[in-house]
Structures are given as structure tokens and as C-alpha cells.
Amino acid sequence: MINIEQLHKRFGKNQVLKGVDLEITKKGVFAILGPNGSGKTTLIKTILGMVIPDKGKLLVGGIPINKNWKYRDQIDYLPQIANFPANLTVQELIEMIKDLRNHPGEDKKLIALFKLEPFLSKKLSNLSGGTKQKVNLVLTLMFDSPIIILDEPTSGLDPIALLHLKALIKEEKAKGKIILITSHIMSFVEEMADEIVFLLEGKVYFKGSIEALKTQTQESNFEHAIANLLTFDHA
Ligand SMILES: Nc1ncnc2c1ncn2[C@@H]1O[C@H](COP(=O)(O)OP(=O)(O)OP(=O)(O)O)[C@@H](O)[C@H]1O
């Protein structure tokens, strides 16, 4: 459960979040969408406690996050850009993250799924972008936390890996988890999301199902419905 009330965040003169209200009380996949720079990553990082808001309330699992950092244990997070020491091998990194999270982690199944065995002894600096992303997905999904946050999870993935990712997300959703995803790939969002949370001008401009979005915008095509949100009243 995530409750956000009147969240404000400014970087210098740039007021990014201008009163975000968002309640996520049911399980499912929630796509956080919005144009470049609309504050999607900032909102995610605020939920994770990595960005401190200037104003507003933020509760995870009913507990204000500034009073209890332990809540982060409940969240598995895939960052948009993961910066790990380049001279670590994949295996060392996996062990390091298990140690840091103080949790055994189910990495074997995911390593096999993404066919990462040949890369385990390779240094991160020697991996391709897509292989790095597969490793990052293992690091994120090997724990079994009730909330999963994926920032641009499809980035660099080949079609087979993308199919695996979609199946994994569906599996995690079936376990009753809350899954927040940002993505600029609308076909991926349309296939995966139960609800759209659309950020515009520092606020939640639309929250609801894809069907509701299509009805509101009078567009039968999802991509056009999103484009309509961007242009309608805002051209
Ligand atoms: N640490 C920071 N310091 C200064 N400005 C920042 C910082 N983090 C984000 N910003 C600014 O906040 C705004 C929102 O950035 P954010 O990364 O949250 O957007 P986004 O919606 O995730 O964008 P994208 O779709 O391009 O990934 C941008 O103008 C960005 O430059």
C-alpha cells in the first residue's frame, strides 16, 4: 500500500513535483507515465527515500517513510541507470547485493532464465548494455518483496529477454504484489499495466485503467490516447 499526499519536490528553481496525490491500495501493475522530465524517476526515488521531498506525506504499508527506513526492505527496485563498480564480476555483484540486503535471494532460476551462466565470471565493464540489464533484473527480482519498482525495465533487452521479463512480471503480479513501472514503450505498457498514472506539470493528471483512458480521450488506440493527454489543453 502506498499513500502519497501533496508531494512537492524542487531542484533549485525547477519545481518538479507540485502536489502529487496518489493512492495505490490494490495489487497490480501501475505504469507511471509522462513526458521526459515530468518527474517519474523523482517520484519513484521519493517513494524509495532516495529523494527527500520538500513537502507532503508519503506512507508505505501505512507507515510514514521518514520515521522508519526499514520499509525499504519491502521494495525491490530496478534503477534506470545502475552504477555498480565496473571491476566486479557478475557473481561478485550478486553476492554483494545479497549481503547488503541480508537475504538469501533466489538468483539461480533467474540466471538460468536469462542464460547468464557464461557471464558470471565476467567483469561488469565487459558486458553489453542488454546483458547488464539482465543482470540488473536478476538483482531486482531475486528477492521476494511485496512491492516492485521497475524504472525502464525493457531498456536494451532483446525480444526473448523481453518475453521473459513480461512473464516474470505476470508471475509476480499473480502473487499479489504492487508493481510500479515506468516505460516509454507503449506496447509494453498496454500489455502489462492494470492502471495508468500519468504525470503532467508536476501532478497526477490521469489515474485509471487503459479502458477509462480511452473513454476519457475518445481514442480507441492506446498510444493515441496518451498523445491526446499530452496535447489536449496543453498544446
Ligand atoms: N538530482 C537532481 N538534481 C537536479 N535536477 C534534477 C535531479 N533529479 C532530477 N532532476 C530534474 O528533475 C526533472 C524531472 O526528472 P526525472 O528524472 O524525474 O524525470 P522523468 O519523468 O523520469 O524523465 P525521463 O522520461 O526523461 O526519464 C528534470 O528536469 C531533471 O533534470
From TrEMBL:
It holds the Pfam family ABC_tran. Gene3D superfamilies: P-loop containing nucleotide triphosphate hydrolases (3.40.50.300). Residues 2-226 form the ABC transporter domain. GO terms for molecular function: ATP binding; ATP hydrolysis activity. Keywords: ATP-binding, Nucleotide-binding, Transport. The keyword Nuclease does not apply. PANTHER family: ABC TRANSPORTER ATP-BINDING PROTEIN ALBC-RELATED (PTHR42939:SF1). This is Cu-processing system ATP-binding protein.
